[in-house]
Design a protein that fits this description.
The protein is mainly β and 113 residues long. It is built from no helices and ten strands. A hairpin with a 6-residue loop joins strand 5 and strand 6.
Length: 113
């Protein structure tokens, strides 16, 4: 069974930083590309970023490009999302997404002064 657990969210002021982590189990992590999505209150799922199985290819939504950095540690079965220069519009629940569009419990990020 695929299990994905995101953590690291919280309340941060505009311009601040957070680092999200996602621990994966139940599949061979190093075989799969992974993604981050987010869902703001009252809105649908929004693509944030994705990374190849080896970590050498990353892609970002235009809304986060230059501010967010996605990475992975295949030895630890863990995915990361470094978020800098956070804006109020980044407020959302963030999910990591794996094989077959599986996703676990997300982590809340709130950007507010």
């Amino acid at each position: 069974e695929v299990q994905l657990q995101a953590c690291g969210g919280g309340l941060v002021q505009p311009g601040g930083s957070l680092r999200l982590s996602c621990t994966a189990s139940g599949f061979i992590f190093s075989n799969y590309g992974m993604s981050w999505f987010r869902q703001a209150p009252g809105k649908g799922l929004e693509y944030v970023a994705s990374i190849g199985n080896g970590g050498e290819v990353t892609r970002y939504a235009d809304s986060v490009k230059g501010r967010f950095t996605m990475s992975r540690d295949n030895a630890k079965n863990t995915l990361y999302l470094q978020m800098n220069s956070l804006k109020p519009e980044d407020t959302a629940v963030y999910f990591c997404v794996g094989p077959g569009s599986s996703r676990g419990q997300g982590t809340q990020v709130t950007v507010s002064s």
